[in-house]
C-alpha cells in the first residue's frame, strides 16, 4: 500500500470511495468529479484504477526506462508519488515488451504497485529515431540504440502497451510542430482520429487497461474541435491534450486549452502531456486539466537545479559553496531536511551521483506538494489566491521566472 | 541512533557496555576484547568512540568525497553499516577541510552520526597526484583536480583531520611498492616512525580524535618489527598494517600478518587497510585484525558485479537478461529482496543509475553481513568451519575465485 498525504486522506473521509467504482468489472479507469472550484472551474477529482485510487489534479513522475532516473521506488513512495509514467518506445527497444510481459508486467518488473501510464511511443519516434517515414499504416524508422529498422502503428503501440500492462495507455498519434499549415494539421488530425479508432479495435485488455485518445490540432480552434469530436465519438475512458508545451508561449497554450476543454466530456479525466512549470500547472488546472507529467523535475535536478517556493536554485552556483542552510526548509523530502546547500553543492562539484538523487527527489517532492496544495486550494475555493501566492514567490513575471 | 543487528544486540546483552569506557574523558577510542576464538586466535571485540560503539571484526564502507558513491546515509543505516571511512586528500582538495570545519565537521556535513575514520591523504598523493617529491619534511605534489601545487606533511595531515573531526585519524606514511630493496624500505620505515611522532605532537584534539600509527616494512620481517616497535613506543590508541593488498599474493599477505601481528598490543584495535575479498577478510581476522575498509564493493557494484554467497555475479552478462529470480535471496538489502536479476540487468544495460545504487548497497550489505556472521563464528568458536563454508561457496580455489 502506497503512502498518501494527510489531505488526500481527508478527501477520502469527506468523499468516501465508491465501492462500485472500486470493483467495476468493465472499466479499468473511472473518473469521479468531487468539486468544481467556484471562481475558476478547476476540478478536484479522483481516478480509480486497478492499482489504486489517486486524487487530481496530479503530477506523474516519469520513469522513462522503467526507472525514475536515480530515484528508488521507496523514494517515490515517501514523497507521496501516486501515479507514474513510463515510455513505450524506450521499453520496446530495450529490454523489449515481450520480456516485460514475461516478467509479469511493468508494475512487477520495476516494483511499483501504483498506477502507471505509458505513452504511445510516437513522440520518441519523432524526436529520437532516424529516418522516420509516416504513412496511413504507421511509421517506419530506425531506433536510436542500434539503428535497427522498426515499424510503429496504432496496433503495434497497443500490442506493446498490452504487454507492459500499464493502467493508462495512449493511442499512437502524430506529434507535429506547433506551427504547421492548416491543411497539414487537418490531415494529421484526421489520421490521428483514424488511428485512435484502430487502437480501440486492437486493444486486447480493455477491462484492465484504459486507452486514452489524444486531441491534436495545434493552435487552430476548428481543428481542435474536429479532433475532440472525432475522439469523443469513440467513447474512450480519457483524453489527453497533445501538441502543447512544444515551444509555443504560455499565453498560446492557455488560449488553446480555453477553446479545447469545453469539447471534452466532464466525466472523463483530462491529461496535458509534458508540463511541469508551476505556473502552467496552475493555469492548466484552472482550465480543467487533471493529469500532468514531465521529465523536467528529474532532468533539471540531475543538472543541479532545484525547484523551491522561492523559485529556482542552481546549486552549483559559487554562492552556495559555504551556505550552511538546509537545501529547502519548506519541502519535506529527506535530502532537503537533512543536508545543507553547501553539501549538495559539493556533491555536484565532485560529481558524486548521490547529489542527483537528492536533487531529483527534491524536485519531485516540490511538484507533488504543489499539486496537493492545489487540490486543497480547489477544495477551499481559493485557487486564484493560491495562484497569486505561488507565482509571486516562484517568480512569475519576475527576472527569475525563466520558463523551463 | 543507528540500527544495529540482532547479533550485535545479543553481544551487548552478553557483554554489557562499560560505563567508564563510554564516558572516558581522555580516550576517544577504546578497544575492549570480548572473546578470543579457541582454534585461531581471532578476536571478537568492540571499539568505543565518541560517535558510538561498534563490534569487531568489522568492515568500513568508503565515502571518498564525503559520500559513499550513489548510496544514501539511510541506505547505510538500513544495512547496519557501523563505521565509515572518508578520504583526507579528496576532502582537502575539494571542498576543503576549512569549509568542512565551518560546516561543523564531517559527521554533520555528510549527515552520518556514526564513527568515521579518515586516512592521512598519503596514499592518494602517491597514486593520484602528479610530480610528487618526498623529503624528510613531507611531500610536494600537484593535485589531480586543477594541478595546483600542494604540500602534505605529518602536521598538515593532522591539521586537515582535526578540521574534519573524524573519530580515527591516520598518520601520514609513505605508501611504497611491495617489492623495494631492504635499504629503501628501512629508510622509509624509519621516516614513517618519525612522521608518527611528529603527528602525535601536532594533534590538536587528542581527547576527541584517536591517532593511529601505520606499520610498514613491506615483506621484511625485521622491518615490520622495527616499524611496529617504533610506533608502539609512541603509545598510540590504535595501529594499522599498511603496505599490503598492493599486488602481493594472498599467501604473502598472510605471511606478513603472521609475523607482524605479535608485535602489536592486544588492547588496541588493529586495522588492515584496503581489503574486502571475503577470503582475505577471514584470513586476516584469524590473524587478529579488527578493522577493514575498501572501495571494492561499491566500485565493482558500479560496474555491475555483485558479491553473493555463491560467488561473484556479473549482472550485465547476457544470461541474466531474462532471469526473473531475485537478485540475491540470501542478502537482505532492499534491492536484492525486491528486484529480479533481469531488472538489474536492464538498468545496467540502459545506463540507469539506480542500478548502481542497488548493486553498491547490495555489495556493502553482503560484506557487512559476512562480518556479522564472522563475529558470530568467533563467539561460537567455529571460525574454521565458517571459513570453509564461505570459501567453498564463494569459490576460493575454484575457477570463479578471481581475486578482486
From TrEMBL, chains A, B:
Substrate binds at residues 119-123, 173, 216, 243. It holds the Pfam family TGT. One of its GO terms (cellular component) is cytosol. Keywords: Glycosyltransferase, Queuosine biosynthesis, Transferase, tRNA processing, Zinc. It comes from the Bacteria. It catalyses: 7-aminomethyl-7-carbaguanine + guanosine(34) in tRNA = 7-aminomethyl-7-carbaguanosine(34) in tRNA + guanine. Residues 298-302 are annotated as: RNA binding. Residues 41-394 form the tRNA-guanine(15) transglycosylase-like domain. One of its GO terms (molecular function) is tRNA-guanosine(34) queuine transglycosylase activity. The active site is at residues 119, 293. SUPFAM superfamilies: tRNA-guanine transglycosylase. One of its GO terms (biological process) is tRNA queuosine(34) biosynthetic process. Pathway: tRNA modification; tRNA-queuosine biosynthesis. Its EC number is 2.4.2.29. The keyword Ribonucleoprotein does not apply. The keyword Transferase applies. HAMAP family: Q_tRNA_Tgt. Catalyzes the base-exchange of a guanine (G) residue with the queuine precursor 7-aminomethyl-7-deazaguanine (PreQ1) at position 34 (anticodon wobble position) in tRNAs with GU(N) anticodons (tRNA-Asp, -Asn, -His and -Tyr). Catalysis occurs through a double-displacement mechanism. The nucleophile active site attacks the C1' of nucleotide 34 to detach the guanine base from the RNA, forming a covalent enzyme-RNA intermediate. The proton acceptor active site deprotonates the incoming PreQ1, allowing a nucleophilic attack on the C1' of the ribose to form the product. Belongs to the queuine tRNA-ribosyltransferase family. Homodimer. Within each dimer, one monomer is responsible for RNA recognition and catalysis, while the other monomer binds to the replacement base PreQ1. NCBIfam families: Q_tRNA_tgt, tgt_general. This is Queuine tRNA-ribosyltransferase. It comes from Weissella diestrammenae.
